[in-house]
């Protein structure tokens, strides 16, 4: 068994062209794509995402203290003196102003421009597409926020976000805004009453793809993952082609005339493919990292997670190579077989989003893409980059193992018995 | 020690090997002779357990190997007709791999690799990739790969096709050496009559999927003992002349090529005076006249009416 693996690895190493294709080419492509798209999307390092946000203030901010005092008394939870005291204290804080301050803070200024408009104008501009979306501060927002903060109940008036159709830009803005509106609605009230003017809102990080607690992922990361995975997938074709060469060179017959179990040949193929694929991705990821600084400052845990997915995906590629090997041994026309294998891998690559980002495809194709081992690995790794949640690795890991087992079963079932080859 | 009994193989109804009975005694060197497509390789594939016979048996020391191939695989060395080597690996790496699939390892494997390389005379080239070898050298490594496990029976399927005379002699010498000094039983397949004549104690002649003759060289030649072969070189050839020749008393077969004639006639027909007479009548000059002792080639011609290589 060891000698089968050694033979396959040696055969691969002897093929200088193959080594260049599997290692140097992906790095080159990553670098080229990265520079090409970096120039296209943002000329200066910072992201150029500039969202136009209309802010419509419908809140009547006069007599806040009185309104609050009246409301507190009317609800009957406190007596008048206490209500007056709370109202007095609350009147120093101004949720609406805090919201303005927040939206115009340095962090957000880079990518959001706020326009204060009345509702009609704002709606018009949104419709014309001049403005990406509008945020409405409803009447009574201040009082409600302060009251809710004091009583600890959720406010029954909240910020409303409106926008025209869901264009990409709008969608992004919506994601960004929506992500913290809830926070805003809730946090404001509590913080204000607490007497502090500082808002502890979780601010969205400046980024294109995602919003939330995770890191965003960059184009360089996308290219690195997509290309690393794609070229590892290509190894299944390479291995199949080498098997074809072995059939042509009749060496397989030499194995058959010995008492060695022919299955060792297949197992050797899988193990060597697994080794090659995992080495290949590891090298591509690490080289890309050192050359382009793709994964700056990530933890050991992060790299371990990447390692897990690399291993499991390599297992999938190994499974695929087993199927290809069995088919090769059965097919009369080896060139035709290799053509079919290449086509299969290309389709997997396209569906999995390794050539073009998957979201340019219709929905059903995107769904299908998640069922390819490469598409699955790509999306899992992108998620891992952002959130680093161990639980997010579980399902995909099981699916990759499932894919491997499926391939293994097919490969073994199709493997020719002696005398059939 | 090894025999095939009514061995037959059909591919999709088309018969490739029919009713072949062979046997190999311990230490013998046996030739399997036949033209292209005779069924030699198919027979060998069945013996070496690569193909299952359609019918018939293969027995090793009296035990049928068809369903119990373990034993024969251990003692059989097969040199396939086509090169079966990794071109991208060195000679040494090839041998190491092929030795390891015979479950050899470590010192034992190393020793037999060096021994095999020595036998085929390529010890000093072992580090080179096979693809850099000449055709003859590749053939020799192809043989070495079958020797690693010191097989008791060595089957060689046309090991000398398409190579230079020097390599060919080397290979023939190697096979003789293995047979004579190491006591290896040899089944040597070829369509070169002279190789088989030179190497083998006994010969099987196959044609069109069947064994058409078998025996020691002397036995086979005795098939022709009732015939003489006469070779003539003439100044010109005339069809009437050939027709007249054929109708002469005692003549069995006449073959003509250019200005040469080959006549097979009943032994002791003493055609010479009649021949001279006839040639004279057609104003043909007799340039050369020779009576030949028959060769296995002639035996084949006699049996099939065709030459071995066309
Ligand atoms: N796998 C196969 N499928 C179908 N027909 C086959 C197969 N192998 C051999 N044959 C046929 O069987 C016949 C015998 O072939 P075989 O290779 O045994 O001949 P051979 O004596 O070795 O000839 P050569 O001297 O050319 O090597 C041929 O007619 C060949 O076409
Ligand atoms: Mg043959």
Spatial separation of the terminal alpha carbons of chain B = 35 Å
Number of domains of chain B: 2
Backbone shape of chain B: elongated
CATH architecture of the largest domain in chain B: 3-Layer(aba) Sandwich
User: What is the residue-averaged pLDDT of chain B?
Assistant: 88
Spatial order of the strands in the main sheet of chain B? Answer: 6-7-8-3-9-10
In the CATH scheme, the class of the largest domain in chain B would be Alpha Beta
Q: Using the CA coordinates, give the radius of gyration of chain B.
A: 23 Å
Features:
heterodimer; A: mainly alpha; D-Maltodextrin-Binding Protein, domain 2; four-stranded mixed sheet; 67% helix; elongated; B: 310 residues; alpha/beta; Rossmann fold; Alpha-Beta Plaits; four-stranded antiparallel sheet; 29% strand; binds adenosine-5'-triphosphate; binds magnesium ion; ABC-2 type transport system permease protein (chain A); membrane (chain A); cell membrane (chain A); transmembrane helix (chain A); ABC2_TM (chain A)
Account of the protein in words:
The complex is a heterodimer of chains A (421) and B (310). Chain A has 421 residues and is mainly alpha-helical. Chain A has 2 domains: 2-43 and 216-414, no CATH class; 51-193, D-Maltodextrin-Binding Protein, domain 2 (3-Layer(aba) Sandwich), CATH 3.40.190. Chain A has helices spanning 2-14, 16-41, 64-75, 80-90, 95-103, 106-109, 119-128, 141-151, 168-193, 219-248, 251-256, 263-292, 300-330, 334-351, 363-369, 373-387, 391-414, and strands spanning 51-57, 112-116, 133-137, 160-162. Chain A is elongated and about 100 Å long. Residues 42-47 and 188-213 of chain A have low confidence and may be disordered. Chain B is α/β, with parallel strands linked by helices and 310 residues long. In chain B, the strands form 3 sheets. Chain B has a 6-stranded mixed sheet, with helices on both faces. In chain B, strands 2-1-4-5 form a 4-stranded antiparallel sheet, with helices on one face. The longest helix of chain B is centred in the middle third of the chain and has 17 residues, at 165-181. Chain B is elongated. The mean pLDDT of chain B is 88. Chains A and B meet through helix 1 and helix 11 of A and helix 2 and helix 3 of B. The complex binds adenosine-5'-triphosphate and magnesium ion.
């Amino acid at each position: 068994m060891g000698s089968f693996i050694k033979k396959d690895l040696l055969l691969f190493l002897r093929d200088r062209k193959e080594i260049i294709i599997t290692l140097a080419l992906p790095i080159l492509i990553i670098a080229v794509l990265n520079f090409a798209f970096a120039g296209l999307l943002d000329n200066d390092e910072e992201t150029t995402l500039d969202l136009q946000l209309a802010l419509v203030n419908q809140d009547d901010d006069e007599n806040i203290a009185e309104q609050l005092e009246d409301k507190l008394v009317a609800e009957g939870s406190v007596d008048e003196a206490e209500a007056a005291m709370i109202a007095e204290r609350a009147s120093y804080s101004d949720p609406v102003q805090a919201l303005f301050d927040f939206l115009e803070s340095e962090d957000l200024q880079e990518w959001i421009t706020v326009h204060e408009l009345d509702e009609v104008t704002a709606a018009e501009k949104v419709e014309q597409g001049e403005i990406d979306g509008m945020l409405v501060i409803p009447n009574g927002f201040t009082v409600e926020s302060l009251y809710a903060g004091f009583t600890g109940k959720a406010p029954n008036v909240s910020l409303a976000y409106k926008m025209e159709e869901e264009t990409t830009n709008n969608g992004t803005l919506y994601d960004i805004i929506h992500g913290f509106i809830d926070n805003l609605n809730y946090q404001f009230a509590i913080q204000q009453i607490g007497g502090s003017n500082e808002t502890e809102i979780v601010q969205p990080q400046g980024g294109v793809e995602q919003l939330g607690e995770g890191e965003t992922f960059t184009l360089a990361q996308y290219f690195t993952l997509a290309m690393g995975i794609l070229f590892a997938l290509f190894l299944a074709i390479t291995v199949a082609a080498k098997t074809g060469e072995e059939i042509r060179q009749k060496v397989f017959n030499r194995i058959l005339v010995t008492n060695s179990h022919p299955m060792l040949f297949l197992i050797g193929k899988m193990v060597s493919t697994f080794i090659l694929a995992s080495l290949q991705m590891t090298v591509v990821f690490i080289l890309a990292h050192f050359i382009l600084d793709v994964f700056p400052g990530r933890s050991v845990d992060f790299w371990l997670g990447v390692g897990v997915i690399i291993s499991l995906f390599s297992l999938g590629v190994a499974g695929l190579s087993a199927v290809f090997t069995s088919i090769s041994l059965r097919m009369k026309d080896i060139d035709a077989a290799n053509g079919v294998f290449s086509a299969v891998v290309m389709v997997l690559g396209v569906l999995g989003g390794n050539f073009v980002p998957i979201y340019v495809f219709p929905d059903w194709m995107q769904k299908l893409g998640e069922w390819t081992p490469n598409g699955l690995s790509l999306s899992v790794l992108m998620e891992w980059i952002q959130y680093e949640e161990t639980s997010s690795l579980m399902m995909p890991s099981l699916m990759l193992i499932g894919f491997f087992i499926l391939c293994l079963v097919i490969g073994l079932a199709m493997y020719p018995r002696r005398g059939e080859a | 020690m090894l025999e095939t009994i009514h061995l037959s193989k059909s591919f999709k109804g088309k018969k490739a090997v029919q009713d072949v009975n062979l046997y190999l005694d311990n230490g013998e060197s046996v030739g399997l002779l036949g033209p292209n497509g005779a069924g030699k390789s198919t027979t060998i594939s069945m013996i070496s357990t690569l193909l299952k016979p359609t019918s018939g048996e293969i027995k090793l020391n009296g035990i049928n190997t068809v369903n119990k191939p373990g034993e024969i695989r251990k003692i059989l060395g097969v040199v396939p007709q086509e090169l079966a080597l990794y071109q991208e690996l060195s000679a040494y790496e090839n041998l190491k791999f092929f030795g390891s699939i015979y479950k050899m390892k470590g010192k034992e494997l190393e020793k037999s690799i060096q021994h095999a390389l020595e036998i085929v005379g390529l010890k000093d080239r072992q580090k080179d990739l096979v693809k850099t070898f000449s055709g003859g050298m590749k053939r020799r490594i192809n043989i070495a790969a079958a020797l690693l496990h010191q097989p008791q029976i060595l089957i060689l399927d046309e090991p000398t096709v398409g190579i230079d005379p020097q390599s060919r002699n080397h290979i023939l010498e190697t096979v003789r050496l293995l047979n004579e000094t190491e006591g290896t039983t040899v089944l040597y397949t070829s369509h070169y009559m002279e190789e088989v004549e030179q190497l083998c104690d006994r010969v099987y002649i196959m044609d069109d999927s069947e064994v058409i003759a078998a025996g020691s060289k002397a036995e086979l030649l005795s098939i022709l003992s009732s015939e003489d072969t006469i070779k003539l070189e003439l100044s010109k050839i005339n069809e009437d002349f050939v027709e007249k020749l054929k109708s002469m008393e005692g003549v069995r077969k006449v073959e003509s090529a250019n200005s040469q004639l080959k006549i097979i006639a009943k032994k002791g027909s003493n055609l010479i005076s009649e021949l001279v007479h006839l040639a004279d009548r057609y104003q043909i000059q007799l340039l050369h006249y020779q009576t030949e002792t028959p060769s296995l080639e002639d035996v084949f011609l006699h049996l099939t009416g065709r030459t071995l290589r066309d």
